[in-house]
From TrEMBL:
Pfam families: Acetyltransf_8
Organism from which the protein derives: Shivajiella indica
SUPFAM superfamilies in UniProt: Acyl-CoA N-acyltransferases (Nat)
InterPro entries in alphabetical order: Acyl_CoA_acyltransferase (IPR016181), GNAT_dom (IPR000182)
Domain of life: Bacteria
Protein name (Swiss-Prot/TrEMBL): GNAT family N-acetyltransferase
């Protein structure tokens, strides 16, 4: 499928999405990618902190995936520890296995990166896939994310990658 033909929009996640998000959390591919996080949708979708966007991706009106964008400097739990101002961090997943590998994640990620860099003060984006999630790492590398360090977050052995604004601007045209 041509990516430009894929009609995916990102919209704000709502309390009405809780059931679906809980269902997606139980899917094997998402447990593999994120075995230890508790997303607490019932609480979190009722809050709107200024350091976070929680977005549902819809394909022709059908929810297919989720994206979270945070400002890691302002994020309350300081998950990222010492981090510079003017960064963003992204989490992304496709809800159901049948929707994986069809190019949807690529469109979602492009849109999320554009949202981040539409704020002119944002210099770079961070991601922290599990080191064993080599397919996701390959996915991120296609957008220009570059390896920073191995890092343990709680029980998770992660690989931190970072995408510079300048790198995205040079790579973007080749992706679309
Ligand atoms: C990572 C993910 C968002 C990519 O979205 P997608 O729509 O499947 O990806 P696309 O079809 O646009 O691109 C295909 C690429 O995605 C990656 N990918 C495919 N299946 C994957 C899977 N089950 N898990 C992780 N990455 C996968 C691969 O890099 C693939 O390229 P390849 O075919 O050359 O191996 C999606 O696969 C997913 O939600 N995976 C499970 C959760 C996850 O790993 N999230 C990231 C956590 S850091």
């Amino acid at each position: 499928m041509k990516r430009s033909a894929v009609d995916i929009i990102l919209r704000k996640a709502q309390p009405e999405d809780i059931e679906l998000l809980n269902y997606w959390d139980q899917q094997e591919h998402n447990i593999f990618a994120d075995p230890n996080d508790k997303w607490d949708w019932e609480i979190e979708l009722g809050r709107n902190p200024d350091w976070r966007m929680q977005l549902m991706a819809e394909l022709n009106g059908r929810p297919i995936g989720f994206i979270q964008i945070i400002d890691p400097y302002k994020e309350e739990s300081h998950y990222w520890g010492e981090v510079e101002k003017n960064f963003r961090a992204i989490d992304i997943w496709i809800g159901e296995a049948k929707d994986i590998g069809k190019g949807y994640g690529t469109v979602m990620m492009q849109k999320a990166i554009d949202i981040c860099f539409s704020n002119k003060t944002v210099e770079a984006i961070l991601i922290d896939p599990l080191t064993i999630n080599t397919r996701a790492i390959r996915f991120y590398q296609r957008f220009g994310f570059e390896f920073v360090e191995y890092r343990k977050f709680g029980d998770d052995e992660c690989s931190v990658y970072r995408l510079e604004r300048s790198k995205w601007e040079s790579i973007k045209a080749f992706l679309i």
